[in-house]
């Protein structure tokens, strides 16, 4: 049985739990021992494990894993918010995704989580002026995960993207903290306009599967966008919108829709 390190549990409870779950996973399924050891147990910190996992997922003949790992290590070392946000994303996924039963699952298996962490590295590169390398990360993230997030987009922490197939987030999009979205969500523009042209998603927003939010519009804090909706106009805080084009159909239903993940519209 895995044993917790009391000091580590106090200093870094997320990493301590990941290590305990990793030991249990190896005991339960020895055939995964190589993956779990190389990805998790081999590393001295969450930061190093995160850099390794992102780099191995994005590695290709064009850019080997070792070089990508050096880039990821540099980004995470330079900006502590990357790893802090990655921890918050793990907790968010565990708390909101009914299919997530352990902290190790997002890091090992969930492409939505892995894609968001890849974006975080790309965003750091973008802010450092290393645009071509940021575009390379964006390209590989799209190829590997089917998630296309422009590295200039601004995304908060506590993000959960469930299933994460065919997610698109445009260049000037802003996503707040504690946002949940499902597969096939687009935060896009409405044409060839330049400058600020993508949505601004508030804190605590829930965006249902297949929803499209288009243009430089605000989606207010703690609102809900129903599955399949096309949102073309501003959404006030704490409201539910649905339809094509989307219209207000009621209140959000609770204080924190993104945390509750309740997608059933009230009568």
From TrEMBL:
EC numbers: 2.3.1.30
Which gene is the coding source of this polypeptide chain?
cysE
Q: Which reactions is this enzyme annotated as catalysing?
A: L-serine + acetyl-CoA = O-acetyl-L-serine + CoA
Residue ranges of domain Serine acetyltransferase N-terminal in the record: 14-118
Spell out the Pfam families in the cross-references.
Hexapep (PF00132), SATase_N (PF06426)
PANTHER family found in the cross-reference section: SERINE ACETYLTRANSFERASE
Q: Which family does it belong to?
A: Belongs to the transferase hexapeptide repeat family.
User: Which species does the entry assign this protein to?
Assistant: Pseudooceanicola antarcticus
Pathway(s) this gene product operates in, as recorded in its UniProt entry: Amino-acid biosynthesis; L-cysteine biosynthesis; L-cysteine from L-serine: step 1/2
What name does UniProt use for this protein?
Answer: Serine acetyltransferase
